[in-house]
Amino acid sequence: MKVLVIGCKGQLGWELLQTKPAYVEFMGVDIDQLDITESHSLEQCVDEMVPDVIINAAAYTSVDKAECDEEQAYGVNAGGAEKLARVAANRDIRLIHISTDFVFNGEKGSPYKISDDPAPLNVYGASKLAGEKAVRLILPSAVIIRTAWVYSCHGKNFVKTMLRLLKDKNALSVVSDQIGTPTWARGLAEVVWEFVGADNSEGLYHWTDSGVCSWYDFAVAIQDIAFDIGLLDTMVPISETKAENYKAEAVRPRYSILERTETEQFLGRSAQHWRRQLRNMLTNLQKESGLEAESVG
Length: 297
Ligand SMILES: NC(=O)c1ccc[n+]([C@@H]2O[C@H](COP(=O)([O-])OP(=O)(O)OC[C@H]3O[C@@H](n4cnc5c(N)ncnc54)[C@H](OP(=O)(O)O)[C@@H]3O)[C@@H](O)[C@H]2O)c1
Known about the structure:
Radius of gyration: 19 Å
CATH architecture of the domain at 2-156 and 182-212 and 257-273: 3-Layer(aba) Sandwich
Strand content: 15-25%
Strand order of the largest sheet: 2-1-3-4-5-10
Shape: globular
Largest sheet: 6 strands, parallel
Helix content: 40-55%
Mean pLDDT: 95
Distance between the termini: 41 Å
Bound molecules: NADP nicotinamide-adenine-dinucleotide phosphate
Low-confidence stretches: none
Number of helices: 10
Order of helices and strands: EHEHEHEHEEHEEEHEEHEHHH
């Protein structure tokens, strides 16, 4: 089976390559080879590669930057998704598209079901919702997987930022009044491959690791585990702060937990707890840094 992964150099794209099943012929492109906002290049690329399935792991993911870069965020997350859906629909190619918990406003106070009405609070969330709507309209058979708080050994994310700050600073203050579920991109990638294999799947799905936490809880867990496995030499105090003190450009949902029950039943598998997945990721990161040190030495 030929699978074209668009955004193959991003966190999810990279983990899709690490977890690729043996039966898949993996074809990956990223913005340096293909810009999904350009219809002609998109058509040309798909016609050259002739994939059976396209996975759209490409997105404009800078949540704060999107607030003053609306045109580009919509261009990629809505326009790019729409163009991709059209190309796939015209060629009868299956499409798997990724979306976000930020389509919700976080005011519900309990996990969001797939059937709950989205109401994004920021430009990123609104642009991703516009992308979802376009994909569903043009290609109703497409699979759209909403996920949250994604991190990986590869790329920029909260875990790697915390590790850097925990090495550089004497103390940290982290937001404790926004609740979500951290999700290791490796586990998400494995689930995406299950959807590739499940040709009876279509429509919206929710997938994250299990459990809930605040950014503060997440930061404390990162420090504890990183220290435990020797990625950090020292511990520094981490205190709680409110989102209003942090003054980020984009407003974020206070409680954006995605209800996974329907997806778990469909796939016949349960998500792993975020803390276990965090330990798995940090252990991998440590192995990788050891390998880098060896090859430099
Ligand atoms: N990261 C999260 O916390 C999170 C949470 C919920 C949902 N999601 C969703 O999960 C999916 C994967 O996210 P991720 O964290 O893997 O993202 P990522 O690491 O930012 O990777 C996205 C990739 O897409 C590329 N890209 C950007 N614009 C493009 C364009 N016009 N054409 C082709 N490629 C383009 C990026 O290149 P550049 O880096 O050069 O821009 C990057 O390599 C996205 O749909 C995202 O919205 C992510």
